[in-house]
Design a protein that fits this description.
The protein is an alpha/beta fold. The protein has helices at residues 4-11, 19-26, 29-37, 59-71, 128-138, 154-168, 181-195, 214-217, 232-242, 283-295, 318-334, and strands spanning 82-89, 92-99, 109-114, 141-145, 173-179, 202-206, 272-275, 300-303. Helix 1 crosses helix 4 (59-71), helix 5 (128-138) packs across helix 11 (318-334) and helix 6 packs across helix 7.
Length: 338
């Protein structure tokens, strides 16, 4: 699994594990509890990486690790038939995937994508496997900007700038999407687009981080839910970092678009895909957002992989393949591409 959270595990002082330290940890009650709940994980997603106690509840540690990991090279994934370049547009570095062979919709349709990492970690290259697959299968341009991390609203402002630039390129159909915190950015950008009467044709949300109140309500894993990869402690630290200048998680009120799940009226939202695993900490908030979209009369494509934790689709195998194929199918339909 190539995931910035595992870089966190390697770099955060409290989580650096020698073989001996790992063996010692595996003998603790916490490790035995984790092993007991690991039975709920889908067999194809059983990997040693989810046994590592990657954890911090400190926003300062999370910020420090994020700064370090952003400096480290993350090798992207190349794919035949797709040209991947790093370009600078509208003051932002953007990773752009363009199809070069076969049927092309690249002149008329595009996807704007935001990477995950809790608003504290990550780079656009980490999603190359999915994004080059989308570009190749649908024949569309996929743009992934390197946006500012915490605190709010810098990342959202960068995301809006990227959308404005992409619209200027003449694409008649645009989807906005992202994973985890990037999914939250995508939802926030979509809400702002509704308010400013800017058209978005499809919204692609992959286990999106939408609701700051989860960080207050859920302080411990609920059985196997929230126990692997992205935990309540990490979630709390990430939201504290992101909302540090606007009141923090659970504040009585927040600025528009800071926590998309707080919006009470989702009317006018574009057709939306939400995919989230049954063991993901964000499962409940994503389900609630899906229900709110349906109540607002929005077409919703819902995909719920059983036994899948946060970031499961970075594990190469059948579950990743099925999830990515589903994303391509729904996104293609949403953009009118057969």
């Amino acid at each position: 699994m190539r995931n910035p959270l595992h870089m966190l595990g390697n770099l955060a002082g409290a989580a650096v594990l020698t073989t001996g330290a790992l063996q010692a940890w595996l003998a603790t009650d916490a490790a035995r509890e984790r092993a007991r709940h690991q039975k709920a994980v889908h067999p194809h997603l059983q990997t040693r990486l989810i046994n590592y106690p990657v954890e911090t509840s400190s926003p300062a540690v999370l910020r420090a690790v994020g700064r370090v990991t952003r400096l480290l090279p993350v090798p992207g994934k190349s794919r035949e038939g797709v040209a991947t370049t790093v370009e600078r547009h509208a003051g932002l570095r953007m990773r752009v995937h363009r199809p070069v062979d076969g049927p092309r919709q690249s002149d008329t349709a595009a996807l704007l994508w935001f990477h995950g990492g809790g608003h504290a970690l990550g780079t656009p290259a980490q999603d190359d496997r999915l994004l080059t697959y989308i570009a190749a299968e649908l024949g569309i341009t996929v743009v992934a900007p390197r946006y500012s991390l915490a605190p709010f609203p810098a990342g959202l402002d960068d995301a809006w700038t990227a959308l404005a630039w992409l619209r200027q390129q003449g694409h008649s159909r645009i989807a906005v999407g992202g994973a985890s915190a990037g999914g939250g950015l995508a939802a926030g950008v979509t809400q702002r687009a509704i308010d400013e009467n800017v058209r978005i044709d499809y919204q692609l949300l992959v286990y999106p981080k939408l609701d700051d109140r989860t960080a207050v309500r859920v302080t411990e894993p609920q059985g196997a839910v929230g126990r692997f990869v992205w935990t309540p402690a990490l979630n709390r630290a990430a939201w504290e970092l992101y909302l540090a200048e606007v009141g923090g998680p659970g504040a009585e009120s927040l600025p528009d678009y800071a926590a998309p799940a707080r919006r009470t009226d989702l009317a006018g939202s574009p057709p939306t895909f939400i995919g989230v695993g049954s063991l993901d900490l964000f499962f409940a908030e994503d389900r609630d957002y899906a229900r709110a979209l349906i109540d607002a009369g929005v077409h919703l494509d819902w995909f719920q992989p059983t036994g899948a934790y946060h970031g499961f689709d970075h594990v190469v195998g059948p579950q990743m393949n099925l999830f990515h194929r589903t994303i391509v199918e729904k996104l293609g339909a949403g953009l009118g591409i057969s």
